[in-house]
Task: inverse folding
């Protein structure tokens, strides 16, 4: 458990539970953007948890008593040769609380959880159009390891997919 960070008005980061599903679905719906997503916008009633997303894969951020963000951390593929790797497959922070260290706190918690799980490498993929996220990842020690040029076609334009990683 990560608890409260030092300082005033900081987020609390904790493991998600099934009871967090309504809040996570709300965050997922409200933070969706073509700048950061390759999938169609979810409808408000879309369940957050399902076959590919389970509570134990998610950490949730609370700020001023409200759920305001999450990070989803998984083993990229279920084979022994990548057991040392975890991948961030979703990071979202409500717009009204951005710039308050919540994204950074979620990433710090993801690094700690990666280490706790016995892995030593953390990866993620980010759209080239998502410049704010890319800057955050760089500040948190992630480096670009690859670029898939024109990997996605979004809103009439080809968009690069950037692979970033760091050790833990």
Result:
């Amino acid at each position: 458990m990560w608890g409260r960070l030092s300082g005033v008005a900081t987020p609390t980061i904790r493991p998600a539970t099934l009871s967090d599903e309504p809040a996570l679905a709300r965050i997922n719906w409200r933070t969706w953007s073509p700048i950061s997503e390759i999938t169609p916008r979810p409808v408000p009633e879309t369940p957050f948890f399902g076959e590919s997303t389970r509570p134990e894969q998610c950490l949730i951020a609370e700020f001023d008593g409200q759920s305001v963000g999450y990070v989803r951390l998984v083993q990229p593929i279920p084979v022994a040769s990548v057991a040392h790797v975890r991948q961030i497959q979703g990071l979202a922070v409500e717009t009204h609380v951005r710039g308050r260290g919540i994204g950074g706190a979620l990433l710090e918690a993801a690094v700690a959880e990666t280490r706790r799980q016995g892995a030593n490498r953390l990866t993620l993929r980010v759209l080239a159009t998502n410049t704010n996220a890319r800057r955050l990842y760089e500040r948190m020690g992630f480096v670009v390891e690859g670029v898939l040029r024109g990997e996605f076609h979004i809103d009439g334009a080809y968009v690069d997919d950037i692979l970033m990683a760091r050790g833990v």
